[in-house]
Amino acid sequence: MFSKILIANRGEIACRVIKTARRMGIGTVAVFSEADRDALHVEMADEAVFVGPAPAAQSYLVIEKIVEACRQTGAEAVHPGYGFLSERAAFAEALASAGITFIGPNPKAIEAMGDKIESKKFANAAEVSTVPGFLGVIESPEEAVRIADDIGYPVMIKASAGGGGKGMRIAYSAAEVAEGFARARSEAASSFGDDRVFVEKFITDPRHVEIQVIGDKHGNVVYLGERECSIQRRNQKVIEEAPSPLLDEATRRRMGEQAVALAKAVNYDSAGTVEFVAGQDRSFYFLEMNTRLQVEHPVTEMVTGIDLVEEMIRIAAGEKLRFSQEDIRLDGWAVESRVYAEDPTRGFLPSTGRLVTYRPPAEGEADGARVRNDTGVVEGGEISIYYDPMIAKLITHAPTRAAAIAAQQRALDAFAIDGIRHNIPFLSALMAHPRWQEGRLSTGFIAEEFPDGFAMPKPEGEVAIHLAAVAAAIDHLFNERKRRISGQLRSAKPVRFERERVVMLGREAIPLTIDDKDGALVLAFSDGRTVAVASSWRPGEPVWHGRVDGKAIAVQVRPILNGVALAHAGTATEARVYTRREAELAALMPEKVAADTSKQLLCPMPGLVKAIAVAEGQEVKAGETLAIVEAMKMENVLKAERDGTVAKIHAKEGDSLAVDAVILEFA
Predict the structure, then answer these.
(1) What is the reported pLDDT for 496?
(2) Which of 186, 248, 411, 586 yields a CA-CA distance of 20 to 30 A from 90?
């Protein structure tokens, strides 16, 4: 077994590998760029080596720097994590030449299956059903359009060396193919150092189901069940689960056996994932193979009890698999949510900055479910523009799918993040969505259910009652504290706070009466309902934990002027508690009107201006490209919402802009 390994990655996956290596008694070496000097993975590792400037192409993607870091520290093996160099055969070969073990598949398997174009050719030769498409390298937008016309729309334009949703576009017309080809090729070059793309038929109403395989260097390969990853946005997975609510045992076996046959055909000898596009009728087609550890691997670990990172290390050290196919059992259900630094109310645009608050839910067993949080950040850390915007992966495991979803909802409610925008409200709304809970999924789920984007829903029904109760309880606690302030002027009568209150959730008024006899807080609502509230929450804590009518809930709390901002169950609201007279007066106050920015193009996220596509005085039509802004390895095309004339341009190519910076103005 190795005595020291280097992790050629950053963020949560580097931290994840370090945890397993530490448990196995193996020393660890981290590598870091200028932007990651104070990162969590650097702190966790036994040693750390600086590898260059913040851009990945100058640090994490430079093979020579990683090899040299191994030489400096005496690392015997390298775990690549996912992304970066994890699927580069040249990296594995360079390590082998230096006498260093690659903790992953052999280079020939990477070449055969890691390249999206070559893997489809190989699968066709092996008589594996594949999605119709053109498997050659496409040289120009015009060629891409001709191929797409022959295949039939819609088509998927995909980077050959791609992954993580980078370098992927769906096109429904020739015009979209031409633009998508350019964007996919540019993203592929900047993210993977390989600008090749291919085109294939896009299956309508598909589901994304993948099989986890693992093989050793002695010819043994098994499959560890499946994961469903159909909840995606811009081809990037958002929520994953294991097993899939679509599959029955017979389909699971067929998919698993096909995945194993494919892996054996290339002598696959590590953890890998065979991805399929599945129809609602359980038909399936080979999509691609990822010759690395997947982001979503924790859900498989939770239902199988197998540490995939440990098995990868043992296999790389030459050990045989410690289990056979007959030993694999799926226990319960696991759900994973990817917590991203992005604003779901603004088209999921990336958000960067400092994590002023970062308080994940407690890990471990609670209420019959297990909570796990894989992360690479700490409170006070910085979310950089240079890398993927993932903050954490929140995983819950329970005996049933419904219980795992309920546990995920509770854990999301208890996840406090401030200082940047994040997608937790959206994830919470997904958990509460009836279609998700019923398992009626497709890769178009988000586009279909949120066609106009995500707007923070207002609390209604039971959720509104819970938030009103929490707001009233917080206000009551503050009033109790005020009574104990020393040095106050004495009153002829004891101070008595009014029990008749009105909770304002935004503009909605909820009258109630507060009673705290014998230390128990009971709220009586105007409809006759009474609710008991109990909590040990104290001012300053970002999450209110307690019970409302005996039900354990968590609510995120942030102080605002004369009240608190509350978030719970995918909703958010500003809550203020008034006396009846105060509520009457507050209702007369005018609402603040937002400034008119309709004649300006604002930068929707902190990013780098890649191109300005118009000139001053130019007339533009709705839908025309105005500018391209790059953030977190994604190129975002900003288009005109309506016809107009460009009056003044404030930004130029190469500028780094803050969110809401004015790019140009219209006449």
Answers:
(1) 66
(2) 186
Q: How far is CA 334 from the centre of its chain?
A: 16
Q: Look at strands 197-201 and 166-171 and give their pairing.
A: unpaired
**CB-based burial, 303-337: b 16+ in 10 Å, e otherwise:** bbebbbbbbbbbbbeeeebeeeeeebebebbbbbb
Residue corresponding to tokens 């045992």: 249
Please give the model's pTM, rounded to 2 decimal places: 0.82
For the CA atoms of 470, 476, 479, 481, what is the dihedral angle to 10 degrees? -80
pLDDT of residue 494 exceeding 70, the answer is: no
Q: How many residues does the chain have?
A: 667
Task: Give CA 587 to chain center in angstroms.
Answer: 40
Owner of token pair 């279909």: 448
d(CA 342, CA 420): 8
Could you tell me which of 424, 496, 508, 426 has the C-alpha nearest to residue 465? 508
> Pick from 609, 601, 608: which is nearest to 666 by CA?
601
Structural tokens at position 351: 């958000």
Active-site residues, by number, are: 288
Q: Which residues contact 227 (CB under 8 A, 6 or more apart)?
A: 209, 210, 212, 240, 241, 242, 243, 244, 294, 296, 299, 300
Q: Is the model's pLDDT at 488 over the cut of 80? A: no
Q: Which of 362, 411, 417, 432 is nearest to 554 (CA)?
A: 411
Asked if residue 306 has pLDDT above 80, the reply is yes
Q: What is the pLDDT of residues 626-655, one digit of tens each?
A: 999 988 667 888 999 888 999 999 999 999
Of 599, 93, 20, whose CA–CA distance to 297 is shortest? 20
DSSP alpha helix (H) spans, 247-393? 249-265, 297-304, 308-316
In the three-class reduction of DSSP (H, G, I as helix; E, B as strand; rest coil), residue 423 is classed as coil
Angle at 53 between CA 47 and CA 54, to 5 degrees: 90
CB distance 456 to 501 below 8 Å: no
- Residues 39-96 pLDDT 10s: 999 999 999 999 999 999 999 999 999 999 999 999 999 999 999 999 999 999 999 9
